[in-house]
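User: Predict the complex with adenosine-5'-diphosphate.
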Amino acid sequence: MFKKILIANRGEIALRVIRACKEMGIKTVAIHSDVDRECIHVRNADESICVGPAASAESYRNIPSIISAAEISGADAIHPGYGFLAENTYFAEVCESCGIKFIGPSKEAIERMGDKIAARELMMKAGVPVVPGSDGPISLDDPDITKIAKKIGYPLIVKASAGGGGKGMRIVATEEALHNAIAMAQAEAKAAFGNEAVYMEKYIEEPRHIEFQILGDRKGKVVYLPERDCSIQRRHQKLVEESPSPFVDASLRRKMGRAARHAAEAVNYVTVGTVEFLVDKSGHFYFMEMNTRIQVEHPVTEVITGLDLVKEQIRLAAGERLTFDSSDIVIRGHAIECRVNAEDPAKDFMPCPGKIGTFLPPGGPGIRVESHLYSGYTIPSFYDSLIAKVIALGSNRSEAIARMARALDEMVIEGVQTTIPLHKKIMAHDYFHKGDVYTDFLPKHIFGGE
Ligand code: ADP
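Assistant: Here is the predicted structure with adenosine-5'-diphosphate placed in the model:
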């Protein structure tokens, strides 16, 4: 087992990893930028090193600086968290070449799943259903472009191959809008990812976003865990996640779980990862992408299964074997997670950094809070706007909803706008209670006034 882990991240996920390490008897090294000196992850780690100025390119994404910090502190492994360098093939490669274990899958697996076009092709070969779409990247110079689009059928969606965070996506309703949408998606993809490759796929109407957590060991064993339903999204990014999905029955769970396992097996996946699907109203499911890291929403799976996914991830990276099968997992109750972001939902979710006055997290039966906030903390403007995750576990879905609503009422975050009032509306909504949730839930039912 590792003796000392450097956590190449900040905020709630850095704290989550430090907590897992402490319970495992592993020493921790926090890194931070110069505006993050007062962060809780810095206080809670055994050691801390400043890796650069506020801009993440110069600190949390600064590979030479992070590797030096690992070497100076004598860390034998690096946990990348999510975001920043978590899915950066070059970083994984540099870690390995410096003799530091990257806590994640192989660089080949990251590379093959990081490119959505290549991942689609790989999945088709592995027999995993994908959304019908173009064969490979598309180009505005292709004289057949309108024909290809027509064959897929409208509405369709243009997506960036290197996409992430809902960026580089354009929904196209008619042929007239096609060329412009491709040009816009290419420009956005180039600006965000330095790679303008885009492709087209059928736009699935009123889909659910359903994903499977998988774990893989070095002997080639892969297990899948019960699904998470992440259909409630803002701008194609998740806001509420729950497990199990109100839509999925045991038979669909088995079918989708097996497809997720095949996806992971196709890249010899080791450690933890997530296979994401879109599911239409008739229960047809399509592979969308694989995230080769721990996800923000992993706690909903933890509370219904009793597993500690971060500890499992560390053990698997250290070469330990999986000791259970998918069939051993018992779903204990129902869990919901609300992402509390420092954002103003009334202003198109504009980030609202600033100084926190009072912070009072909720508690009581069935409530777990993952947050790096404290009263008097200043949220910097440089990073992600996620400031807390509230997870409610109930014996069934309605108890989980009632607990979440009660926890949101108790929670106090003074000084900045947050998504808490929006979450309260979602928890009170009839359609949410009925489990009638699709990726357009927010625009249709909350902002559309229905
Ligand atoms: P990213 O990597 O940017 O998160 P994803 O491919 O995971 O992008 O898609 C994010 C979200 O975008 C999905 O959860 C869904 O809401 C929407 N989306 C993506 N592809 C489609 C599609 N073919 N049809 C309908 N919605 C889609």
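The radius of gyration is 21 Å.
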